[in-house]
Each structure stands twice: as structure tokens, then as C-alpha cells.
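Researcher: Here's a chain I'd like modeled. Treat it as a single chain, no partners, no ligands.
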Amino acid sequence: MIAAAAVLATFRWQAHVRETTSRVEAAPSRGRFVRAADVQIFVQELGPSGAPVVLFVHGMGAWSELWRETLTATGAAGFRAVAMDLPPFGYSERPAPGAYGRQDQARRILGVIDALGVKQATLVGHSFGGGPTMEATLLAPPRVRGLVLADAAIGLDAEAGGGAGPALVLRARPLRNALVAATVTNPRLTRWLLTQFVADPGAVTDARVHLLRAPLIVQGATDGFGDWLLDFLTSREIALSVHADAYRTLALPTLVIWGDRDATTPLAQGQRLAHLIAGAELAVMPGIGHMPQIEDAAQFNRLLLAFLQKS
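Model: Modeled as a single isolated chain. C-alpha cells:
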């Protein structure tokens, strides 16, 4: 027990020593910050400023740069491609603890649309980002021109409230942050963690590992992840996007992209989403796991652009 506590304390200290740069100073210069709802959101853009907006929302532990190949292809095709950092990830401002609910995040997505000065955008949500993306769509359907869900972790029919075990352990902030520092914000584990989400380990390149490690120097990265994790596992929010009936009211162009070897959100979840939304297309990527935009960027981009060009 004493040895375990010492190990956790060591990882927490290493995070404290590493996380010394402000998010503004650490953020790449090719992006910018916009005010969206209650926080400043870091966004990256490519493509003509007056073109239709395609807004990309990443998954857990990622940030806007993971969309780089797709941003480049989408911008080159004549769209205004925008990727945002969904808090607490990347370089966006972190809200107060308790403000990480799905509707909170959805309002930040809608706030980015406002900040871009447009009335509508096509939303592309991946993995954990799929829930807030879907919530934004259901909260404000007129703001969404089209919808793309890629291996989206939505949790249809989920009940509110986390288990007593996670609540008891995670509510102790020092212990929570020590566990986070030893695992998800530990740069030594970044490569291994990414490997768990792909079918082909070849997608886990040095460049992508470096990319995912980059924000881990930001002040409060571990604390922010810990606050988000507590909300994620123990929230009692009843989001619109967990109710299957809500999807049947939608009438907008929708593409569901899914890897057939996804072990995180199995293909059956994508098939159900495509069935619930009237007229939705389902594109299954063979041999692909949970990260289609990096496991086969060329195929993912072809599917996306074909959808965008006819929507």
C-alpha cells in the first residue's frame, strides 16, 4: 500500500513539473481562440473563409490537430474546414468543475458556430465527441446543415448516474489526479493507449504519438482531465442524445462512418444510429478500428467529401 502510494505520488509530481506552460503560450500559432458559450475554444481552420463550414469534434484525449489530414483534404475541396479543441482536451479554456455535461459541451459547439459568424455548419463528431455533436444537433437543428458520426460513443438508452465505486474513489481529488497522472496524462503511456483504439498498430506513428503528447505540458492538464473524468463517470444529466426517439425527429443529411473492427464502439452501434435517423447513410470501413480518420485517412476523406459535395 505504501509502495503504491509512493508510485502515484511520483507520477503526480512528474505531472506538476511537466505542466508549466499556459495554454495560450503552448497552443500552435496556426490556430486561434474564439469565445464559445462560457469558455475560450482553440480552433484551427483551412479553406476559403466564405465557404460552407465543416466543424470537426475530436474524441477523448485527442485535440484538433488529429484531424490535420482531413482538414487539409476538406479545405482543398473548397470547404471551410474547422477543428475545435473540446475541453478539457487540447488548448481550450477549461470550465469550472461540474460543467462538462453533454449539453454544456453541445453549447460550446454551437458557440463556435456563432463565433465563426455563420448560421449553419456541417458537424463531424468522432468517438466521445459524437455525444456532444449529437446533442448540439438535437438542441438546435436549424444550426446544423449536415451530420457525420464517426465511430461515435453516444450511449443510447444510457441511464443517468455513475456507479458508487467510481464516485467514491474519484471524488477524492488528490487520489483522482494521481491516478490520472499515472495513466492518461502520462506521456510514457500515450503510444500504448492509442494502440488500444486501432485495428492496425501501423497507424500509431511517432508523429501521432508526439501530437497527442503535445498538450500534456499545459498548466492544469491533469486536474482538468480529472474533473472531466469525474463528471463523465458520475453525471446524472439526462441528455437528449441518449433517447432513441429524439433521433426520429431529425430530417437532415447524415453519414455514419464506422470501422468494422471497432472494439470500443462496435459496429452494431453505428448500424442502430443509421437506422434511427431517417435517410442516414452507413459507410462501413473494412479492417478499421475506432480511429478511421487516422487508420485509413484516404478512404475516410473520400467518404466524407462525397457526402459533403452532395449534401
